[in-house]
């Protein structure tokens, strides 16, 4: 049912959008969502909600749901709906930074235990380790992002410039 509502919202947005890349993207998203979800909703979900046992042939209407990810995938690939490489590299940087901060956090917990010859389960040792680990997350993330940018782009990528250029593609 929510898929039909999402399809209607896509359709209304599609009608208001000026011609261009965004309109083409919305055409595929709208078509895939509506063609994929309307048959399933009408032939399977509504009879089930009304207390009727759907016939065998009605159960095959759920196969139309496969059209939703297919159309989304086509829109992503054909019209560059998402700049997947930037999203992937940012996710990789956050993952690496999180792993680095966890290593530092557990190393600090162990170090505090060694220095004070006690378990680091105490309140203040844990708080100190959390504060230090939280304060180094953003520098770690920026450092990892810089290394990834140099590896993938061989120079520093200006995300703001890239996003502005990507956004201007919708104005065409």
Question: What would your notes on this structure say?
Answer:
This protein has 172 residues and is mostly helical. Helices cover 77% and strands 0% of the residues. It contains eight helices and no strands. It has helices at residues 2-16, 21-49, 56-59, 67-79, 84-115, 123-135, 137-153, 159-168. The chain is flat, with a radius of gyration of 25 Å. The relative contact order is 0.09. The model has no long low-confidence stretch (mean pLDDT 78).
Beta content:
under 5%
Query: What number is the mean pLDDT?
Result: 78
Number of helices: 8
Low-confidence stretches: none
Task: List the keywords.
172 residues; mainly alpha
Secondary structure layout plus pairing:
Elements lengths: L1 H15 L4 H29 L6 H4 L7 H13 L4 H32 L7 H13 L1 H17 L5 H10 L4
Structure described in brief:
The protein has 172 residues and is mostly helical. It has helices at residues 2-16, 21-49, 56-59, 67-79, 84-115, 123-135, 137-153, 159-168. The chain starts with a helix and ends with a helix.
């Amino acid at each position: 049912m929510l898929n039909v509502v999402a399809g209607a919202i896509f359709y209304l947005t599609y009608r208001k959008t000026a011609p261009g890349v965004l309109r083409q993207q919305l055409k595929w998203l709208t078509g895939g969502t509506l063609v994929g979800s309307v048959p399933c909703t009408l032939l399977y979900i509504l009879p089930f909600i009304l207390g009727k046992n759907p016939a065998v042939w009605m159960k095959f209407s759920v196969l139309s749901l496969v059209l939703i990810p297919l159309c989304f995938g086509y829109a992503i690939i054909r019209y560059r709906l998402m700049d997947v490489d930037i999203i992937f590299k940012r996710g990789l940087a956050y993952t690496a930074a999180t792993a680095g901060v966890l290593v530092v956090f557990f190393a600090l917990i162990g170090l505090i235990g060694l220095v004070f010859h006690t378990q680091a389960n105490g309140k203040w040792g844990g708080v100190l380790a959390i504060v230090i680990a939280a304060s180094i997350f953003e520098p770690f993330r920026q450092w990892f992002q810089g290394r990834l940018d140099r590896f993938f782009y061989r120079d520093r990528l200006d995300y703001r410039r890239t996003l502005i250029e990507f956004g201007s593609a919708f104005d065409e």
